[in-house]
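Standup notes
- DV: blocked on the single-chain target, sequence here:
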Amino acid sequence: AVVLVETDSGTGSAVFIGNNYLITAAHVVNNMGLNDYCEIEFQDPNNPDRQRIRAMAQMMTIGEISSKYDPSQDFALLHIVTIDGSKFANPCAIGSSAAVKVKDKIKVVGFPGGTFSYTEGVVSSIKGSENTDLFDVSAGAWPGNSGGALFNQNDQLIGIVTLKGKHSVNDGKTYALKIDKIKRELQAKGFQL
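- DV (later): unblocked, structure below
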């Protein structure tokens, strides 16, 4: 359910959630405007010889943009417009980030450098008063993992990987924006997941 995203400024990842919608990190697609298009690619990591399925996705909405990076707004919603994504991947199950506890096992899935990657770890911390919308996890992530999935041990989506600004790979940590926060923000914009 995790796809490769390609824009004019580089590559990243996105998560297929059904109804031809994808969630990604805003900084993966921040060179796009609303209704602009990017390329996506479905890949089967278990069958590397299988043809990769390319498609176009349209920007539907993005987190609030300001001059200062805000990790709690680092999300965007894309809509696949050229194919039916459900023919190539099962939508991921959306979990609840509210149920996550420190030391819970997690998985980070994405396409760093355009190549499929899967790492495991645990939730190291849940950000306190500074920013309650982020998980800090021990699983490795690299440029290109941004917009990819943070799954719990039941393979439910609990967050979207974001690696930018203060909360970046440069401080040796992997951060993910909680899916509950993203769902609330998208619902406020009129999108139901």
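- Follow-up: The first strand starts at residue 2 and ends at 7.
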